[in-house]
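It is worth pausing here to work through a concrete case rather than discussing structure prediction in the abstract. The textbook approach is simple: state the sequence, then state the predicted structure, then interpret. We follow exactly that order.
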Amino acid sequence: MPWKETNVMDEKERFIQEMLAAEKPFKHLCAEYGITEKTGYKWKKRFYEQGKAGLNEQSRARLTQANEIDGDTAAELIKLKMAHIAWGPKKIRELYYKAYPHKTTPSLSSVKRILDKAGMVKPRKVRPAATTDCPRLHQQLPAKEPNDVWCIDFKGWWKSDGEICEPFTVRDKYSRKILCAKLMSTKSSAAVKVVMAELFRQYGLPKAIHSDNGTPFAAPNGLLNLSNLSVWWITLGIMPDRSLKGCPGQNGSLERMHADIAREIEGRIPGGIEANQAVLDAWIEEYNSVRPNEAIGMKTPDELYTVSPRKYDGDYDELEYPPGFQVRKVTGGGEIIIHGIRVTIGYALRGLQVGLQLIPDENAYYVFLADFLLGTLNMDSCCFMPLQEVKSKKTILAEGKI
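Step two, the predicted structure:
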């Protein structure tokens, strides 16, 4: 039971005096004063450490609060948030760490609490996943290093002073670096090819390019759904890769970046295409070199990205094939002629050379475009059968079929 309420301090002092006299067992002394042994030892310890002052009641409040942030830190966090209003607590905390390296960085929960109290945190909407059948060319290639996969798409347009602004975006999947966000006046294959050729000269060639199934990246009724643009990639040794139809989340990092553009730039800049492109260029520079990215451990894309060792020296005038291949040029109608017979291959390949490799013990050929296997040509039926996936000569050799 607690100390007698007549005079708590007097009771404690008498308890200590009798304890020091040691005339009674400590257990009995505690019982006589109506306190537990635990309480008795507590006051004994405080008396020995602090003297009589230790007998005074002490605050029960915690000496420090784990998530407590002083006013200056809170103001600094809010200032950083005001400068980057669309960034979340994780990025703001990372900026604080870099801006104030000699100060203790507050916990993420503390940063969230401060920004939430300031009304500067918005809940994130989550879109449910969609399902669909797999298209003919769908691999979801992983990115283990820079330039393994580039992701491309058109973001969607907005208007500024009556002019349509529609960014064509290219992003490295591994480092998240934005390689391009150019406002386009057309979505034609020719216009996109000009932009991509410049990117290839600046950054080198990627191993694969991931896109959706729309034009100009794919052709719904073409061979392997290949468009003129994706056929061009193949001639350069770049593998086309696509999302499932209706599943933009499979190109999720690019979609998230598009959402950032929509939130921070879209419809906010007067002055038409020229003014919007200038703001977009500055935004990209900050995105790549300043803005921490959660998906890459709060680093910036520029910290991870390196140019590709595969250089682009222009397009090939002709495609060469190894000895033993029969080379045929695809006509303007998408056909080849072999043994006097016209066989339809694909309209997107017109003007290019394909290589035919005889399949052992069969009256048939493998049909290659550069290093990639398109399908098989059966001479009994004079029919070309495209494969459901693109395989290279190395794969066929490994299977022992050449």
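Step three, interpretation. Residues 8-55 form one domain. The first strand starts at residue 149 and ends at 154.
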